[in-house]
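#structure-requests
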Amino acid sequence: MKAYINYMDSLSVDPLLHKKIMEGLSRDVVHWPTITNKRGIFVPVAVGAAAVFIVFFGVISHLNREKSLPHESQPMITGASESSSPDQSQSGMTEQDGARYHDLDLSRITRPADSSKVPYSFFFNYRLMDLAQLNPGVTNRGLRWAAQGFTDEELGSALRMTIKEPDLPAGDYTVDQEVLVDEVAGTVIAYQTIYTYFDPDTLAFKKKFSIFYFPDHYFDQAELESMRNTRLANEKILVDPFPEPGPVHVKVPHVRKLVYVEQGVALVIEAETHLVEGEGPVDQERSLDRYRQMDKELLDMMGSLLILSDLP
C-alpha cells in the first residue's frame, strides 16, 4: 500500500490539462444517482463500465424470471406439460387398466379437418336438440349445451338411479362434461360426458366416446324408440348388428350410436373415429380395422354400464 501511495505521489499532470479539467468541472454540475439499501441508507452509485454491466445483468435476469412465471392473463393448464406432449409423471394424469387420464384442455387436441363437413344433426348432441318437444317457436327450442361439471352422485340424484363409471379402453384421454339447458324454464334436461382420446406425442385426435343420460319425456319418445338398438335381457346385452363399414374413400367420421331406453330413462353412447391417412391414398385396411376396434370398444363400454348398474 505504501508503494502504491508513493507511486501516486510521483505522478504529475500537465498544467494545461489540469486547467481544462478544472474549467469543465466548474461549468457542469454532475448529479450522482442514489439507491437505497434495505435499511434505508442512501448509497452513491458510481457510473462506470462495471456498474453498467451489473445493472444490465440484473435487468436481464429479472426479465428471464418474469418469462418463466405464469401471467394471470394466461391461465396454465393443470397437469399439462409445457411441451406438446403431456408429461405422464405429473399429478394431472392418472392411469387405470391402461386408460390414462390427462387434465388437458380440449382445445389443445388437433382434430381432423373433415370434422366440420357433416350435417348439423350428424352428431347426437345436436340430434337430441331436434328431438326436444319444448318451447315451440323459440330459436333452437330455447336449448343450448353448456359446459358444466357434475358428479355421478349428482347425476344419479337427478335421474333417481345409481351411475357407474364406464370401463374405458386403453389409451390417453381427457374428459369434458356438458348439460343441455332449457333456458326458458331454467332447467337441465340432459347430461353428457365426453371422453376424448389423443396421441400423447402429437396431441392428435384419435377417437371420442360421448355418454348421454336424460329423461325421455322431454323428447320425441316415438323417435327415440325407433332409434333404440340396445336391450337388456337376463343380464345379456342384445344389440342390433351394425352395418358393415363400406369402402373408405371420403373424409367423413365413422360414428356409431348405442341407444338404450327403459322406464323413462335414456342412455346413449356415441363413438367417433376417423380414417387412417398415410402419405398417399387412404389406408383402407387400417381404417376398417380401426372402425371395427372402436365398435367393439363401444359394445364393451355399454356392457359395463348396463349389466353392472341398476338402470331401470
